[in-house]
Amino acid sequence: MTKGVAGIGKTVSVQKFILDWTDGVANQNVDFMFPLPFRELNLIRSDQYSLHRLLLDFHPELKELNIEEYKDCQVVFIFDGLDESRLNLDFEQKMKCCDAKQTSSVDVLITSLIQGSLLPSALIWMTSRPAAASQVPGDYVDQVTEVRGFNDPQKDEYFKKRVCDESLSNRIISHIKASRSLYIMCHIPVFCWIAATVLQQMLKKRNIKNIPKTLTEMFIHFLLIQTARRDEKYQSGKKTYQEELLQSQKEIILKLAELAFKNLESGNLMFYEEDLSQCDIDVSEASVYSGLCTEIFKEECVFQQKKVYCFVHLSIQEFLAALFAFHSFVTGNVAALKSLLSEEHRDDSNPSFLSSLQSALGLRSEDHLHVLLKSAVDVALKSQNGHLDLFLRFLMGISLERNQGLLKGLLTQTQSSSRSIKETSQYIKTLNTEDLSPDRCINLFHCMFEMDDQSMHREIQKYMSSPERSKQQLSPAHCSALAHMLLMSEEVLDEFDLKSYNTSDEGRRRLLPAVRGFRTARLAGCNFTAKSCEIVAAVLQSPNSLTEMDLSDNDLGDSGVQLLSKGLSSPHCHLQTLRLAGCNFTDKSCQIVAAVLQSPNSLTEMDLSDNDLGDSGVELLSEGLSSPHCKMQKLRLSGCLISEKGCTFLAAALTSNPSHLKELELSYNHPGESGLKLLSARLEDPHCKLETLKYVHFFRLSQNKYTQISVRTLLFLTKRQHVEQNYD
């Protein structure tokens, strides 16, 4: 699974991967590579398909291929754009397809391929925006990668290659660097392309005053530039004022915006002629528009040579959809906005919705916008795959009065919005988002920035520079903002101590993704549960800098370590030290940890103390310690209910794999004299690397009482000094 935000380059990565294969540069062990984009799979309207027939529809040249050859060849299926899927991918249904000739619905074919019941030897690659990636259960994902976009030098390199005029490219880079928000957004290649188009035009005309500073402003100026280009090619080319330009092409722009909105709701990203007709777009008009404005709308031929239409990039469809929603609001076209209104604000029977709403809720006219924005937030957050997240950002941005001014000619009137913006920002800050992923929470922070509310950013900057920041309470919203700022840092930081941030459990959950940019994550005693392990695992499955993590004293349980193991098994995980003391593990957890140790890993130090592992747990753990993949040098098992039997398993593991473990702690267990002798014998073995065996135990003073801290025996065995006893 490859994750990445909109426009970051996931599809380009897929195209490069395929090109390298066809050119003989890479992956020459692969016999067949089948790209099956979800946006094209969505177009299939037949109920029943076999895998072979599906592949023939996409690649007719396969008709001479014997179906059995699929089984004997190395096949790669590439499903690009999981977030764009309209298929019902149900991984819990019992219906599965196990034969390439067997017919079933397309969604069953796809889930069967992913689950491995169909062509189990096939390799599967999926791409997705982060919010939608969870549609595929982690059990079916072996590896997660992330497209991070451009780093700072690559941003500069892009603009220098995109703009041939060196002086102009340097000015563009200077202007973008002057706006921290724009510079951060330029890690997204699509945004770089749009920014280069806009700034090249504006700086040529010396229009420095109105340089865009937000995502919405940049897209509005992009629309203005494309409208001007269309006017030059197709109309008189004499219109010079923005308002006049937009007014002259208002009809086609709003038709495209309606197409964008209606189909974004239903998840359609490619359109047939009948979809265009529903928005009164003539097919010939669409062809003309796509031919003259290829940077907004385009005509394509997909499988079976069907002619379809789509927006050049999903983000452009999302922008135009937001434009249609706001235009409908301003013009009172409430019926079009029905899907954006939360249930409490819907009234299907009353045509004069706004008047009724005003009367019922005691709203003034300027408060109507807040109702729309608040409802849009609620509806967007209910989306399982986050398909309305970017749309929401654009809608918030367009609602700003200065952006409404840029769209004069399309908007016949503007809406006073300052009060509504303030109320919507406040609403976002107070939202209960416990069921949302941290990525979705960060999108809400972006929405506030589009509304020109930088209060969170300023508060976080003030907080970070405060010498008494540990005393200041951080709200969950502040934590989302802080996580975003930390994730945007180009520098790898040393230590992230979650308890040093004065916030709630929900705030800590939102901060968790930020640990990927640190070398050490101190997460002990943070009231984490198994659910928190999903986020930690996601961090470890993505590119990160972590080498040390402490999750001690959290009630993770066996289910938590099961989730965590997915991250520990990832090729992106480079943890060397992992502390899991006091996490309420049982012997079941040892089986999971052993599986991690038996696969390639970087772990050299682990603390499993104060968990009720018992001898059965140690037996399972010893299987991992015996593995040649295990590089463990320090292992702490203090207070784990280990007896002489458990020591037998540990001694056997040290015999099987003697080359790594140097330090073993068994304090507060019951190994008995024979158990300690078994292990201390390993100290004498010249082939065994064990140098230190540590055992501390409290003496019983009477039948029912133990000393709390006083009388104890310390057995500290090394190859230099065998026995040392201390009495406190």
In short:
Its main location: cytoplasm. The chain is α/β, with parallel strands linked by helices and 728 residues long.
Strand order of the largest sheet: 10-11-12-13-14-15-16-17-18
Q: Whole-number radius of gyration?
A: 30 Å
Strand content: 5-15%
Judged by helices, strands and strand pairing, the structural class is: alpha/beta
Tell me the domain tally: 3
CATH class of the largest domain: Alpha Beta
Helix content: 40-55%
Main location: cytoplasm
InterPro entries: Leu-rich_rpt (IPR001611), LRR_dom_sf (IPR032675), NACHT_NTPase (IPR007111), NLR (IPR051261), NLRP_HD2 (IPR041267), NOD1/2_WH (IPR041075), P-loop_NTPase (IPR027417)
Pfam family, one: LRR_6
Keywords: ATP-binding, Cytoplasm, Leucine-rich repeat, Nucleotide-binding, Repeat
Identify the notable features of this structure and list them briefly:
single chain, alpha/beta, 728 residues, Leucine-rich repeat, LRR (right-handed beta-alpha superhelix), 9-stranded mixed sheet, Rossmann fold, disordered C terminus, repeat
How would you portray this structure in words?
InterPro entries: Leu-rich_rpt, LRR_dom_sf, NACHT_NTPase, NLR, NLRP_HD2, NOD1/2_WH, P-loop_NTPase. This protein is an alpha/beta fold. The chain has three domains: about 1-145, Rossmann fold; about 250-430; about 495-720, Alpha-Beta Horseshoe (Leucine-rich repeat, LRR (right-handed beta-alpha superhelix)). The strands form four sheets. The chain has a nine-stranded mixed beta sheet with strand order 10-11-12-13-14-15-16-17-18, with helices on one face. A five-stranded parallel beta sheet has the order 2-4-6-1-7, with helices on one face. Helix 15 (about 315-330) crosses helix 18 and helix 17 (about 370-380) runs antiparallel to helix 18 (about 390-400). The longest helix has 20 residues, at about 215-235. The chain starts with a strand and ends in a 10-residue tail after the last strand.
